[in-house]
Amino acid sequence: MKKELLVLGIETSCDETGVALIRASAGPDLPPGLGGQAEILAQALHSQVSLHAAYGGVVPELASRNHIQRLAPLSEQVIQEAGLSWGELDAVAYTEGPGLAGALLVGASLGQGLAHAIGRPAIGIHHLEGHLLSPLLDPAASGLRFPFLALLVSGGHTQIMRVDGLGQYQMLGETIDDAAGEAFDKSAQLLGLGYPGGPEIARWSAQGNSKRFELPRPLLKRPTLDFSFAGLKTAVLTHVQKLKAADGLDDQARADMAAAVQGAIVDVLTTKCRKALQETGLRQMVVAGGVGANQRLRAQLNAIQKSDQVEVLFAPPHLCTDNGVMIAWAGALHLLAGKPVVVGPGFTVRPRWPLSAFTPKTS
Predict the structure, then answer these.
(1) Residue 138 lies in a domain
(2) Which of 26, 138, 220, 336 is the 20 to 30 Å CA partner of 263?
(3) In 3D, which of 308, 234, 301 has the Cα closest to residue 273?
(4) Beta strands in 34-90 (DSSP E)
(5) What is the pLDDT along the chain (363 residues), one digit of tens a residue?
(6) The sheet that has 148-153: what strands, in order across it?
(7) Alpha carbon of 24 to those of 3, 28, 41, 214, 349: distances in Å?
(8) Do 286 and 164 fall into the same domain?
(9) At 285, which CATH number?
(10) Which range of residues forms the domain containing residue 196?
(11) Residue 85 falls within a domain, yes or no?
């Protein structure tokens, strides 16, 4: 395997069409077993937020159709911006799962087609591994060493993983119902704040009093590292119904409820992370996924970092949401680590795919 690779990454797991081209090279600046560093040569990202806003959530069929319209032009745009030709690529990485089946098929089809056309390998990447490895793109992560903890927190996933090496992931705790990002979205919808809910809840929280409304913090005091946010969503619904009945759901009430929601979710996340660090004895943790951009979450985890003398590393804010960079990066790391190329007919996508069962394959 070459010591320097040009890898195109394609992400279409949900409602963002992401394409990126990176130059990845072997180097000593990342944890043993990863052995790589990356330069982002070009990237493009199209968000479908406005397309799905009227529905209060992602409509799978609309998402798939939009990926079909956007993916090829964005791929061409990235190649042109990088000043390269298709034949100069060393590999194409695409999201194989988990995600929406139709959306995944769009990315997988183009990724496999491009790779076949230029005679290069295509590698299917686990979406969550892309998120998990994205904090390593930050130079501040140069001191990260295996094993470490990872909090993956987004609209579809809330998980605490133990990471023992590239492709070696052990689930320690996960949501038993709604993900944290989903709780943000549903709460924002109930309050009439708009979509996506996470940024709207954070924005309204800045003007709110988090102590006005009392909301539950499910499983907070239980010994498990699992999460549950369905009860929180139900509590928000009950408060909203009472406020509407009393004609009291004004802007200040919305801001106060948003602050309470954010406080409850962040308290649960930080408490579980602290517990995981204490139980495992690990001293380093990475935080990735869209909710990882929440500033209150970052502040509370940074406070734990100081009080407990642990290190918490975050994905760069612009790489917290779904993007092609993280997929290209994950693919490059597997190739640099010498993963064998498996040539075979056809390909598949995996809408449901536990990260702990992930075994990357290239074709």
Answers:
(1) no
(2) 138
(3) 301
(4) 36-47
(5) 567 899 999 999 999 999 999 999 876 544 444 556 889 999 999 999 999 988 888 999 999 999 999 999 999 999 999 999 999 999 999 999 999 999 999 999 999 999 999 999 999 999 999 999 988 888 777 788 889 999 999 988 999 999 998 889 999 999 999 999 999 999 999 999 988 899 999 999 999 999 999 999 999 999 999 999 999 999 999 999 999 999 999 999 999 999 999 999 999 999 999 999 999 999 999 999 999 999 999 999 999 999 999 999 998 888 899 999 999 999 999 998 876 544 445 688 999 998 877 665 666
(6) 168-174, 158-165, 148-153, 284-288, 311-314
(7) 8, 13, 10, 49, 25
(8) yes
(9) 3.30.420.40
(10) 143-314
(11) yes
pTM over 0.70: yes
Examine the domain organization and report whether 60 and 96 are in the same domain.
Answer: yes
Structure tokens at 32: 């043993």
Unique residue bearing structure tokens 């590393």: 313
CB distance 130 to 309 below 8 Å: no
Instruction: Check: CB of residue 294 under 8 Å from CB of residue 202.
Output: yes
